[in-house]
Design a protein that fits this description.
The protein is an alpha+beta fold. Helix content is 26%, strand content 15%. The strands form 2 sheets. It has a two-stranded antiparallel sheet. The protein has a two-stranded antiparallel ribbon with strand order 3-4. A hairpin with a 5-residue loop joins strand 3 and strand 4.
C-alpha cells in the first residue's frame, strides 16, 4: 500500500494528499444517494452547482501547497484564486468561485 493512503475506523482507505484528501478531510457528501450515471448529458444545473460549490468551500480554505517555482507564469499566480468550471459535450458550461479570473494552465 502507498504512503498516500490511510485506514479509517470503518476500514476504508482514504487519500492523505492531493484534492482527494481535501474531500475526505472535509467530509463532503455525495451528490445524492442516487448517483448520476454518465450518459453524455450533465445533471441539472442546481445539482452541478451545489456539488461544485461544496467542493470549492473545502478546497478554498486549504492552505497546503505553494505556487510552482519552475515556470514564471505559475510562480506569480495568485494562490488565493480558486475557480471550478465544467463543460458538457453540448457546450453547456457551469462554473463557481473565481471563474472570471484568468488562470495560467499547464499540463
Amino acid at each position: 500500500m502507498s504512503d498516500n493512503w490511510a485506514d479509517t475506523s470503518s476500514g476504508d482507505l482514504v487519500p492523505t494528499d492531493g484534492v482527494s484528501s481535501l474531500m475526505a478531510d472535509g467530509n463532503v457528501t455525495a451528490l445524492s444517494s442516487d448517483p448520476h450515471v454518465s450518459t453524455g448529458t450533465l445533471p441539472t444545473t442546481d445539482r452541478i452547482l451545489d456539488a461544485m460549490q461544496r467542493t470549492l468551500d473545502v478546497v478554498r480554505v486549504d492552505g497546503r501547497g505553494a505556487t510552482s517555482k519552475v515556470y514564471p507564469a505559475l510562480e506569480t499566480a495568485n494562490p488565493d484564486l480558486v475557480g471550478i468550471a465544467l463543460a458538457g459535450v453540448t457546450g453547456r458550461v457551469e462554473s463557481v468561485g473565481d471563474d472570471r479570473a484568468r488562470f495560467t494552465i499547464m499540463s
